[in-house]
Amino acid sequence: MFYDPRNQEHGLPHSPWTAIVVPRPIGWVSTLAADGTPNLAPYSFFNAVSGLPPFVMFSSASRKDSQANAEATGEFVVNIATWELRKAMNETSPGYDAGVDEFAIAGLDAVAGTNVAAPRVKQSPIAIECRYNKTVALVAENGTVASSSIIIGEVVGIHIDDRVLVDGQVDITKVRPLARLGYMDYCVVSESFAMKRPAARE
Ligand SMILES: Cc1cc2nc3c(=O)[nH]c(=O)nc-3n(C[C@H](O)[C@H](O)[C@H](O)COP(=O)(O)O)c2cc1C
To answer: Which of 47, 76, 101, 142 is the most exposed place for a label (fewest CB within 10 A)?
Structure first.
């Protein structure tokens, strides 16, 4: 099958789009509202987008609390959502009012960041502290402004639980990060393999 999403229906019962670029890591974004209320929500349009200096992005389908808080306070934290925390992650996803603390709803502990005031999830083995860098609006060639924007953060602190470090490396089978597939589906990284890069041919 082929379709052009600008002007053609896919003809399937559900859009295949979010089932195609997968798996998407789940950035569990924690922020502080201007009044100091902690906020936590999962974002699967999330990724690391630069090595050194490191930057991350998440994409918000409208101007949700995480985006608004990151823009207002200049900070956010991305916690890695894991298999063990899957239920708690899901409990933080309903669209609660801005004054609601999703840490409390999901029974999670909020720990103040080291280089940012935004809290991190104590139970997550990896947390990435970010300074808000910019918001990128997405505008199609025909001028249509997407409801989604990309929020970019510069990484200013990385927490790694010593328990997931083995011989100086992050052991991904101990982290067991969750990732989003299409529809209602998820996957979890529970095994890995190594492959050496070939040398360039002369
Ligand atoms: C696994 C998962 C991934 C999600 N990814 C996104 C996403 O990438 N972008 C988005 O706008 N909403 C996403 N959502 C929905 C938000 O988590 C939801 O709208 C949440 O209420 C936003 O909270 P906030 O207003 O506190 O930021 C996702 C939900 C789940 C369960």
So the answer is: 142
Rg of the chain taking only CA atoms, in angstroms: 18
202 pLDDT band (50/70/90 cuts)?
confident
Dist. CA 166 → ligand 1 center (Å): 32
pLDDT in tens, 167-194: 999 999 999 999 999 999 999 999 999 9
Query: Domain residue spans in the chain?
Result: 24-188
Pocket of ligand 1 (CB under 6 A): 26, 39, 41-45, 59-61, 64-66, 90, 93-95, 180
Minimal-distance CA residue to ligand 1 atom 30 = 42
Closest residue by Cα to atom 23, ligand 1, is: 41
Domain at 24-188, CATH homologous superfamily: Electron Transport, Fmn-binding Protein; Chain A (2.30.110.10)
Best residue among 43, 59, 60, 121 to mutate for probing ligand 1's pocket (most ligand atoms within 8 Å of CB) is 43
Residue type, 197: R
> Per-residue pLDDT tens for 44-76?
999 999 999 999 999 999 999 999 999 999 999
What local confidence, expressed as pLDDT, does residue 191 receive? 95
* Burial (CB count within 10 angstroms: exposed 0-12, middle 13-18, buried 19+), residue 75: buried
Token couple for 126: 């990896």
